[in-house]
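Students often ask why inverse folding is considered easier than folding. One informal answer: many sequences map to the same fold, so there is more than one right answer. In these notes we will look at a single instance of the problem. The structure comes first.
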């Protein structure tokens, strides 16, 4: 399976440029205050988006890229749809020195 188109999506959606430290990401680990990271990009999932909150339950405050890429429930089409849903929720990027 070739995931190059999906990997390109991870890189291209860089709309907001607020630097965020890894420590701050880890504090947003509840359903009412959910942030996730995909690689360097950080997304805020709002309380009214039940589908995204359910998908990432137990993963708030973490990097979910490997979850998305390795989960058999996500084929390339599902990954693209998911990333399109997340795109307007991007709030910034992780500072490089704080990446895991």
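Output (designed amino acids):
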């Amino acid at each position: 399976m070739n995931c190059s188109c999906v990997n390109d999506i991870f890189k291209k959606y860089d709309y907001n440029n607020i630097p965020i430290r890894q420590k701050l990401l880890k504090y947003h680990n509840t359903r009412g205050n959910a942030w996730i990271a995909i690689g360097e990009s950080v997304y805020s999932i709002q309380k009214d988006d039940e589908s995204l909150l359910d998908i990432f339950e137990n993963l708030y405050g973490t990097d979910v890229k490997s979850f998305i890429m390795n989960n058999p429930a996500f084929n390339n089409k599902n990954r693209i749809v998911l990333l399109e849903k997340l795109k307007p929720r991007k709030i910034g990027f992780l500072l490089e020195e704080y990446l895991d």
